[in-house]
Amino acid sequence: MPPLQIRDYSWQQTESAVYLSLPLRGVRPGNADIFCTENYLKVNYPPFLFEAFLYAPIDDINSKAKIGNDTIVFTLFKKEIGMWEALSLANVDKEMMQRIREKSVLQAQAKAKELTEAKAVAKREDERYALKIMMEIEENERKKIEDLKENEREKATRELEAWKEQQKNSAAEEEKIQREVKMCQHKKQIEKERKKSKDKKAINHIKNMKSKNTTKGSSVKTIFSEKLKDEYVPAPRSIGNIKIQFTPRVFPTALRESQVAEEEEWLHKQAEARRIMNEDIPELHDLKEEEKNPEWLKDKGNKLFGTENYLAAINAYNLAIRLNNKIPTLYLNRAACHLKLKNLHKTIEDSSKVYRIMKQHLRLTHPTKLYEKMLRRFGI
Predict the structure, then answer these.
(1) Could you tell me if 216 and 252 are in contact, meaning their C-beta atoms sit under 8 angstroms apart?
(2) How many Å apart are CA 332 and CA 261, to the nearest integer?
(3) Are the C-beta atoms of 43 and 33 separated by less than 8 Å?
(4) 156 vs 309: CA distance, rounded Å
(5) How many CB atoms lie within 10 A of CB 73?
């Protein structure tokens, strides 16, 4: 069945626009097919059909169509200012109509292709711009993190240098005190020698006087002797303070309860082992002997952790672990630092290392049945 051509339409115009009213009963935005190009307008609403081979070209991009109240109202903007003699061309044969339809379809396809390509180009530009912005954000974040790490590294270096300077000043002060003590002792020794020399001279003088006065009475000799003794009485000692320093003990037990030979042998072995290990660690070459102790480094890391200097604390724990990798508290403290810095993978690694060390320690120090019982107790 051929479509029904719509004839009862109305239109008005101005010099810049054409207003076309097309009545269609029951028409809605979703069931009417509208096709519009520069020279051709088509509305397909089965079984109705409307075609218009426009008198002059229009701006099909900005032209509009409004559907409502059983009517389609078109607002067609003219490309050239002027009045039309009619809405459609007159004396258009079927061959010309077909050519106009085909040309309109080709124009619509070309415009659709251009629009698609423009959208694709715009999309690629948007993606490129978004990627550029993301790269800039990531670069800024990376630079911020690097700056933060550098600041923390410089802070830790300054603290370490200040601590070394303090230790150096303390050593110099202690050396100065020792020199003063030695000088004081030397002066006392000289004073003692001088006093002995004076006493010796006095004794010789008394003996000489005795030999000269042997003919006199004993009372005279005794009085003269007492006078000489009074004359040569040494001066009282001067008041002063002597600082006594005791050698610190590594072991907390009292000396009477300890086994000195075994302790000295153990300390010698520990020092030899640290010396061998320190040869392979260039970071320890500039440190003092007490600074190469894992326990000292652990205490240093704990103090840094207390001041929320987590990166410096991790460096202290790393160095202590390189010296002795069998102390579980080092891994546990370093895991706490990584947790504060949101380094979750490293936190898990250090926690797993503590688990393995404790499990190995239980296996070596307890019988098999007791070891299994303790594993069940601690949930390992």
Answers:
(1) no
(2) 34
(3) yes
(4) 8
(5) 14
Please choose, from the candidates 318, 285, 317, 286, the residue with its C-alpha nearest in 3D space to the C-alpha of residue 301: 317
- Lowest mean pLDDT across 8-17, 186-195, 226-235: 226-235
Number of Cα atoms under 13 Å in the Cβ half of residue 17: 11
Distances (CA, A) of 225 to 214, 222, 235, 245: 13, 5, 19, 45
Q: Please give the structure tokens belonging to residue 112.
A: 């659709």
Strand partners, 76: 18
Measured CA to CA, the distance from residue 225 to residue 219 in angstroms comes to: 10
Alpha carbon distance 285, 374 (integer Å): 43
Angle at 156 between CA 153 and CA 158, to 5 degrees: 110
Are 14 and 79 in contact, with CB atoms under 8 Å apart?
no
Q: Distance between CA 293 and CA 301 in Å, rounded?
A: 12
Q: At what angle do helices 94-212 and 218-231 cross, to 10 degrees?
A: 160
Interatomic CA distance for residues 173 and 163, integer angstroms:
15
Q: How many CB atoms lie within 10 A of CB 347?
A: 18
Q: Is the pLDDT of residue 376 over 50?
A: yes
Q: pTM of the full predicted structure?
A: 0.35
**Nearest-angstrom CA–CA distance, 104 and 132:** 41
Contacts 24+ apart (CB under 8 A), 240-248: 240/184, 242/181, 242/184, 243/177, 243/181
Token pair listed for 12:
């008005």
H runs (alpha helix) in the chain: 94-212, 218-231, 260-278, 294-306, 310-323, 328-340, 344-365, 368-378
Q: Is the pLDDT of residue 339 over 90?
A: yes
CA distance 266 to 330: 22
Euclidean distance between CA atoms 144 and 290, whole angstroms: 36
**Three-class DSSP category at 57:** coil
